[in-house]
Design goal:
The chain is mainly alpha-helical and 215 residues long. It contains eight helices and no strands.
Length: 215
């Protein structure tokens, strides 16, 4: 019974990801829009800290998982949809709000980072079977989170504080506002996404994996 259950799980994982790859563009867009909406919901799970305009939210988890679920291009597309429709006025940025002020404000760089991170995670998930193992997936999530999300996030936060708000702040102060308070939580989120990715992704080729002949 246990063996049959595991076999069914393997078949289900493979079939789901192969089905996702074979969808029409319209259906892929619909999935991307759905994941963007989920990201909007995760943005409402937020905690504000008194010394920084950057809140703790669940968006990072959604952005990283988008790359796993939607793959090489469509994970990034889903985050681009989230950013563009939010700027257009859909109220799914944190606090049930929207508008250009969010992308131009202190947290706009992180939103751009979500797009980059989802593209990277989706690329490796789709193209490398070995990347779907937990240790490599965790490493990928940490790179995507702490480089692709935080670098544009911190750059924009620095520019916003100095040029828009008019404060004279240095790099350490920016790190104190936009990086240090979030390290522990983001490691937990990255670990959770890596565990989820390991659990749901097939460990055999379902598309055009570059290492399909090495497994």
């Amino acid at each position: 019974m246990a063996v049959n259950t595991l076999d069914r799980l393997r078949i289900a994982r493979y079939s789901t990801f192969q089905w996702r790859c074979e969808l029409s563009i319209v259906k892929k867009l619909a999935l991307a829009l759905g994941v963007a909406a989920v990201t909007g919901l995760m943005a409402q799970a937020r905690v504000y800290l008194p010394w920084t305009p950057v809140p703790i939210t669940g968006q990072t988890y959604a952005a990283l998982l988008a790359g796993v679920l939607l793959g090489q291009w469509w994970g990034g597309v889903s985050m681009a949809i989230y950013a563009v429709l939010g700027v257009a006025g859909i109220p799914w940025f944190n606090g049930w709000s929207g508008g250009i002020s969010h992308l131009a404000g202190p947290t706009g760089g992180y939103i751009i980072g979500f797009i980059l991170a989802a593209f990277l995670v989706g690329h490796f998930t789709d193209r490398y079977i070995k990347a779907r193992k937990f240790p490599r997936m965790l490493g990928l999530m940490l790179i995507a989170n702490f480089i692709l999300i935080y670098v544009p996030g911190l750059v924009q936060l620095y520019l916003w504080l100095n040029l828009v708000k008019g404060d004279s702040v240095g790099i350490y102060q920016v790190l104190t506002m936009g990086f240090f308070p979030f390290i522990a939580g983001d490691i937990i989120k990255a670990t959770a996404v890596a565990a989820t990715a390991w659990a749901v992704t097939p460990k055999q080729g379902y598309g055009n994996e570059m290492d399909s002949n090495t497994e």
